[in-house]
Every structure is written in structure tokens, then in C-alpha cells.
Amino acid sequence: MKKACQFLCIIGVLFFTGTVSIVWADDPVLGYQTASQQENMDAVSGDDNGFDDDLFDAFEDDAQDASQVADPIYYFNYAMYTVNDRLYFYVLKPLAKGYKAVVPTPARRGFGNFFHNLLFPVRFVNNLLQGKLRQASDEIGIFLVNTTAGVLGFNQVAQKHLDMHTKTEDLGQTLGTYHITEGFYLVLPIFGPSTLRDTVGRAGDYFITPLSYAEPWELKWGLGILDTVNKTSFRIGDYEDLKAASLDPYTAIKNAYIQNRRSQVNK
Description:
With 267 residues, this protein is mostly helical. It has one domain. The protein is built from 13 helices and two strands; from the N terminus they run H-H-H-H-H-H-H-H-H-E-E-H-H-H-H. It has helices at 2-18, 35-43, 55-66, 74-102, 105-118, 120-129, 133-148, 157-161, 171-177, 196-206, 217-234, 238-244, 249-266, and strands at 185-188, 192-195. Helix 1 runs parallel beside helix 11 (217-234), helix 4 (74-102) packs across helix 11 (217-234) and helix 5 packs across helix 11 (217-234). The chain is globular.
């Protein structure tokens, strides 16, 4: 019985720390600005935290190119898309709505800033691997300023007062800059849309993410849950808008994800 409970806890935590990828991308699924997102854009800091206002236009213009990415395990992918969809609507969204109702926006913004600052090693290392030395040096300055003057990153002093900004960089993007193709499309159970290349990149980024080494495990899982729920609280409605605007949501999400990732690689 004890082992069964531990297993269920692990599954639950994995959901909370991963399902968010079907509604944004550190989550690249969504990036176009909806009516519900306007409030969120005002609430979230001015730094680049994964939003891409041109994503929906890019999806409409280049959907045919995105469809050229192979989907050889379509039935598995569609099944995982369905599972993730149900988990979002029945678990993550209600939890995020309740969290939003009781936690004021300044506090939620502060938590978001803290977790963004915590991902400094991922951005720094991948900037170096891509030869973006200026951006890598900027990352160091932003991290030092926000960690000290910004009190562990809860306040983005560098962005607000020094006009310094970060850009989302990860190992999947780095591999793309080395002309490694996406491979085939893959919907990960719990973690959402991906490609073979991005899945490998996600695994590599895990080892340079500070939260991966937090101890004890209760602290690591608790912070992961807080990060996921906090981000979702700013973007409730975006996933629903994309589904409502699409005759085939599975294909729309696939195309939007691929186009956004290609845009990030090319920047």
C-alpha cells in the first residue's frame, strides 16, 4: 500500500510539473495574444518569458511546412494529446483558477520572476553553446542584479531599471542552430507536444536546472508544482481559445508548436 501511494504521488507531481506545456511553452504551444492574455501580459514582467505575439500568424502562413514533420506514431500521440487535454481541464485548470483567486497578482508575478531567474544556468549555457557571447554576458549581469538587488529574483530590477532583457534559450534550440532537424513529432504523456530533438534537449537541460538538485525531494516537488500552477494562473483561457479557433485542435497544436520552435531557433 505504501509503495502504491508513493507511485500515485510521483504521477501526480509529474503531471503538475509537466502538463503546463500544453498551454504555453517554456510552452511554445501558444504565443498569440488573446483577449484573456492582455491582462496576463500586463501582470507578467516585461522580460521574454516565452510569449511570441506572431506565433498564430506564423501558424496560419506556414502550416503546410509544419505538417512536413513526420508523425509516424500518430495514434500514440493522439492518445497522449487526449490524456493531457483531460488532465488540463479536470485538474490543472481548476487548481490554477483557485490559486489565482486567493493569491494576489503581485505575489504571483514575484513567484514567476523568481523561477525565471532560477533558470539562468539553462539560458547562459545555451547562449554559450550557440556562440551568443553578448547575450551570455547579459545573462550574468541580469542574474547578479536580480539575485541581489531584486532579492533572489522576485523583483526584476535589471529589466525594469537597467533595460536589460533575457531571451528564452534551451538545448532543443541549440541543437536546431547546429542544423539538427526536429526528427518526428512526439506528444509526451504529461509533458505535452515535443519532437525527438526537443525531447533530447529537455533531458539535457534537466541536468543544468538548479531545481533538479533541490533537497529534500518534497521541496523540489513543491517548487515544481508552485511554478506550474503559478504560470498557468496567468494563461487560463489561451489553450481553450486555440481549440475553439481550430477545426482540428490536434493538428493546430502540432503546427503551432513546430512553427514557434522554428521561430525560436531562427532568432
